[in-house]
Amino acid sequence: MKKFRKLIPALALLLVSAVLMSTASYAWFSMNNKVTVTGMEVKTYVSDNLYVAPSTAGNNKSADSAFKSGVNQTVSGTLQPVSTISALPTAFYTTTDAAADGSKQTSTSTVPYTLVTGNDIEISGTHYKGYVDYVVELKAVNASNADRYVNLSKVNLLYMGAATNVTHAFRIAVFAQAQASPSTNLAATEVENAYAAISTTTANSIMAPTSFAYFGSTAVSGTAAKAAVSPVVNNAGWSAQVAAGKTQYFKVTVRLWLEGEDTDCNNTKFVSLTESWALDLAFSLDSTNTSVALIGSVANATNSLSTNTFTAALTNDETAATYAWYKIGTADAIDGATEATYTASANGEYYCVITTTEGNTYMTPVVKYPAS
Question: Mean pLDDT for the chain?
Answer without folding.
Answer: 74
